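Cont'd.
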Amino acid sequence: RNPMESNLSNQAIILEDGKPVLKDIEDTPLAEGEIRIRVEASPMNPSDQLWLAGLYGIKELIPKKTLGAGFEGSGVVTEAHESVGADIVGKTVAFFDDCHNEGFQGVWRKYINKKASDVIQFPEHVKSDEVFGVFVNPLTVVLIVNTAKKNGNKALIHGAASSSLGKILVRYAKHVDFPVINIVRRQEQADSLKELGAEHILDSSSDTFDDDLAELSKELGATAYFDPIAGAFCGRVLAKMPAKSTAYVYGALSGEPVSLSPIDIIFYQKSITYLYLATWFMEASKEEQDEAFGEVIKDLSTGGKIFGTKIYKTFSLDKVVEACEEAAKTASLGKVIINPQL
Ligand SMILES: NC(=O)c1ccc[n+]([C@@H]2O[C@H](COP(=O)([O-])OP(=O)(O)OC[C@H]3O[C@@H](n4cnc5c(N)ncnc54)[C@H](OP(=O)(O)O)[C@@H]3O)[C@@H](O)[C@H]2O)c1
């Protein structure tokens, strides 16, 4: 226990009438099995942007008293309950807070109490700004590739491929040798993916995009499209894919409902379904979860060549609204993160 740190007051982002406000809050004493963590980094993901807009999650399952924000992050353990070994104090850990859980408080706070068994511990040399995003994007990338493989696809198509998740997917798919057609919407996005070693990149602003997509998806046998954009673009991509292709909508970047031609549905048996990490968490076996986590943690403990995420800009806790606006504009350049210690 570091008495200096435990005397510090705590502060957290609280949603008041849907607006994020920084408030002084009371520290809760550590319960059995718990540790206190100094939160040092948390990403501003599109899911956080949806949360701040009041649009994220399964409404019926979100506890009524939920008032916080921030789903995942990293930090350093400052204190441990006597029931937990003191060895953990000083370690860098990553953690997640599920907004569907009764105890959700959000990680956008200076200090957070967590069960020691619920956090991921990293070796001494790993710093918080290397492991702020262990759960949401890396595990979704593993899930995307596993879903494509499990359903017998020979290749997959990915939209908004210069997202942080898209960059991890480029590296992971290369690592496991699974072909990906990366769709971007600007030339500089294509250039940045090329630098990462992406083989197949299509720019949707090009005049030949639709024909190129038809040709390449046929050639590679790409019958699964992982779509974080939705809107009309989903049907446009599916229209050019082989018969019986499926789009897995997993994000809402366009903010628009998906559309798909009834001709494609009836005569070419094309379909749209979903992919959601939270349902995977609920349904996957312990072995499947351990395997996915194992891959991610091993890589992030040794430099994060596959699952690491570049930081574009860091904001303090009182600048959450500005961070949210910045993330919407600059996502292709790297992740906007919140550092509550600033
Ligand atoms: N279902 C799940 O379980 C799950 C889990 C994790 C992540 N996700 C989703 O995965 C997606 C990517 O997450 P991330 O953290 O990697 O995002 P990110 O780093 O914020 O990147 C977003 C990317 O999308 C592009 N983009 C934004 N609006 C677009 C549009 N209308 N059309 C085409 N491209 C657009 C941006 O490029 P510009 O610079 O061109 O705007 C940027 O490259 C998000 O939709 C997120 O919600 C879902």
